[in-house]
Input
Amino acid sequence: MRAFVSKKDIAGYLFIGPWLLCFLAFTAIPFVASFVLSFTEYNMLSQPEFVGFQNYIRMFTQDTLFTAALGVTFKFVFIAIPLRLLFALAVAMILNRDSRAIPLYRVVYYLPSILGGSVAVSVMWKYCFSQTGVLNTFLTSIGIPCDISWVSNKNTALWSIILLFVWQFGSPMLIFLSGLKQIPQSYYEAAVVDGAGPVKKFIRITLPLLSPIIFFNLVMQLIGGFMVFSQAMIITDGGPMNRTLVYALYLYRQSFTYYKMGYGCAMAWVLLVIVGFLTLLIFKFSDTWVFYENELYEGKKKKRGRKTK
Output
């Protein structure tokens, strides 16, 4: 009689066992637990009390800070992500050349992505944009007297966080760079023979062939943008006048400052739905602007077939 589990199966289960245990303990079980707790009133000190949809009703009808935090987050996402992708693509195109110093430049440009989210860099960023910081000192030295605190002013506080987020363009830059390396040089050579200039080559060759990479970076940066937390907490702590109160920071306050874990779980699920909907929207309309090389090749074959007919 054949054994139900072979020795190879046992070895496989042993190898995936640690990952499976971590996935259950830190992802699957908390995922289900947060959904259940979102329908309860739970302060982490007593037993959760089931309240139905009260957390969600209160969120959309009574909590004005919820709508304010959502508005700040949307503003942050729709400004910071396009700027970050533009800077990443621009630097990637500059670094897409043969030079002995290029590997060093890649490391230098990637460093902010490693350090940018750390507490130390956020504290440094806060002091650089303070009233006596480096930015004001530089502006004063070139004849532009400035004594405002950029992180405390209600009109500039969010922009200081956006600038820090854009400064961390290293990861999408490397992905763009790898995508540029995959574009055959023969396409550009043929375009030069046809008399195409740099702008036309960028619009007609680079962007279409790089559109899958742009699509990937857009989705990943969208998810990361909605989860921005440490920069807003350390640099401005949501101020001034809640102008930098991003969604994740307000969720943290509700859960761990006010001990309203049930309400915080409900907020987390609303965020999941929002990010999921926007991601689905991007996927839905990706067919209109994302082109793959095999699709372009098949399109050319169809056009040639029509001409021969």
